[in-house]
Specification:
With 268 residues, this protein is mainly alpha-helical. The radius of gyration is 19 Å and the shape is globular. The relative contact order is 0.14.
Length: 268
């Protein structure tokens, strides 16, 4: 019972409402743009548009994070935005230009393929926690690379277990639900980690499945009434994802300020 109370103490509703609304609105806008660029026939132009969308989404993600953190500091300076774009650019380069091509080229080479999968799995586990710690360092107005690096190292050294455990639990939940609903993180076709990372970069927002099924319903002229239950179910799941994601974002602040540690000790 004490353990359950401790877990529930990290969940919030009222303080995250504004961030939740923005998450839904920005996810909706991103998905419309993402579906629209799917009509681009030129491969290089398509991937270029995909990268631009991913870069822009990182700015929206950072904005959402600042809304979830208190006190609210919304100084989106050019320097901060540049740091956000650089981090996202590194992620895109690492996943789309290195891991995915390597996995495709060495698909028939068992040893190299396993190595790529293991490296991809390690990146999958660390990429979002590190990104959120990086964003929180920017939120605290730490803009030099040395300050940011030292901040991430200090927090991770003290709280890496709780940070990674919470994230892995959330990731496994999303994968389990998406496997049953056919979402972007479905394991129905096997656990292809570079593909999971790619989906995380380009269609990892909470409402992607709902929007994509809605698009297919309209594209194939299916009666909306016949798809209403499915669409409603996917929308509810998307909102649940958004709520859980934002609570994890809020938990990062607790960890960074040691409020999570103090709260844990208070329950003992």
């Amino acid at each position: 019972m004490k353990r359950m109370k401790e877990i529930l103490s990290h969940f919030h509703i009222r303080s995250l409402l504004k961030a939740l609304v923005w998450t839904i609105l920005l996810s909706f806008a991103y998905n419309i743009a993402y579906i629209a660029i799917g009509n681009i026939s030129d491969g290089r132009l398509y991937y270029g548009a995909q990268i631009v969308l991913s870069l822009l989404s990182s700015i929206g993600f950072y904005k959402i994070c600042t809304l979830a953190w208190t006190p609210k500091k919304e100084k989106l300076t050019f320097e901060v935005l540049l740091r956000v774009l650089i981090f996202q650019g590194i992620e895109i380069l690492l996943v789309s230009a290195i891991l995915v091509p390597l996995a495709a080229v060495f698909a028939s080479n068992m040893i190299v393929s396993v190595i790529v999968q293991l490296v991809s799995a390690a990146i999958l586990i660390f990429i979002i926690p590190v990104q959120l710690l990086y964003y929180y360092a920017l939120f605290l107005q730490k803009t030099t690379w040395k300050e940011i690096r030292q901040f991430i190292q200090t927090v991770f050294r003290s709280h890496y277990r709780s940070i990674l455990n919470a994230y892995c639990a959330l990731l496994l939940l999303v994968m389990a639900v998406d496997t049953f609903t056919g979402g972007p993180f479905s394991l129905a076709q096997g656990f292809y980690v570079p593909g999971v990372l790619s989906n995380l970069l380009y269609c990892g927002n909470p409402l992607f499945s709902w929007m994509y099924v809605l698009y297919l319903t309209a594209a194939f002229s299916l009666p909306l009434s016949s798809m209403f239950a499915v669409l409603f179910f996917l929308f509810v799941i998307g909102c649940m994802y958004a709520y859980l994601d934002l609570n994890y974002v809020g938990y990062i602040q607790e960890v960074c300020t040691d409020r999570g540690t103090k709260r844990s000790k208070a329950h003992r």
